[in-house]
Design a protein that fits this description.
alpha+beta, 7 helices, translation regulation, RWD domain-containing protein
Length: 259
């Protein structure tokens, strides 16, 4: 088989063996999520497996630097031992064994609505008039959206500075961000700026930005904070993040009100 045929066969096999771990898959990329909120994004080059190794990106907010380096080295060693052959199955098995040897993850910083009531209390003066949505919980994970009007990158940075001055938000597992704003130049030309940041929740912020674009929400920034509760939510977490984004935009007149 050529490289493409081997890649497709490997993806089909991996999808059948690890359906609960496989979060997203295309012909060139696979994303797996494990316990301890550890995830790996694997990208397959055109000449894999015959020549080039797959590229991988590890995310593990509960891992120390030494633990990440150890796992990184284990995956690289596995590839070296299998040059020219598919290696994803070996990698997933290595990660599973690695996780089994880890101590239990720390208890989530917050897990109930009552625990989160004071998230909106700001340790730093809020000169951006940040709006805070209600806390939503699902299987011990907690989510909360925040919104502010922005008209520059400086505004965006200031909003994050204010939010993260709150210790609960600063210690959250993810602070997923998306923003859009427009600047009118002296010649009358309008420059549109937009960007997003997953903060480890792969693919979440681009979905938020796409939603904001569909709602034509301009000059606004939304941050969705997630405190991971130790139980995988799968695709449901993206639905929660988008729903909270839509709700806080609508509540602040950036989109049509729900009837």
């Amino acid at each position: 088989m050529n490289d493409e045929e081997q890649r497709l066969a490997e993806i089909e096999s991996i999808s059948a063996i690890f359906p609960d771990l496989l979060e997203d898959v295309t012909e060139k990329q696979l994303i797996f999520r494990f316990d301890h909120d550890l995830s790996i994004t694997i990208t397959l080059p055109d000449d894999y497996p015959s020549t080039s190794p797959p590229l991988f990106l590890l995310s593990g907010p509960y891992l120390s630097r030494e633990q990440k380096e150890d796992l990184h080295n284990k995956l690289n060693d596995a590839y070296i031992d299998n040059i020219g052959f598919p290696v994803i199955f070996n990698w997933i098995s290595i990660i599973q064994d690695f996780i089994q040897d880890l101590p239990p993850p720390p208890e989530p910083a917050v897990s109930t609505r009552d625990d989160l009531e004071y998230v909106a209390s700001k340790e730093e003066i809020d000169d951006m008039n940040i709006q805070h949505g209600e806390v939503f919980t699902d299987r011990k994970s907690a989510f909360q959206a925040h919104l502010a009007a922005v008209r520059s990158k400086e505004d965006v940075d200031r909003v994050m500075q204010i939010l993260k001055s709150n210790s609960k938000i600063a210690r959250a597992t993810h602070n997923i961000t998306a923003y859009r704003y427009s600047v009118t130049m002296e010649n009358g030309k309008v420059i549109h700026h937009h960007d997003c940041e997953d903060d480890g929740e792969h693919g979440a912020s681009s979905k938020m930005l796409e939603l904001m674009d569909r709602m034509k929400a301009d000059n606004v920034m939304v941050v969705v904070t997630r405190w991971y509760g130790g139980i995988h939510l799968g695709p449901d977490r993206f639905r929660h993040i988008n729903n909270l984004t839509r709700q806080i935009l609508c509540d602040n007149n950036y989109g049509p009100k729900k009837t």
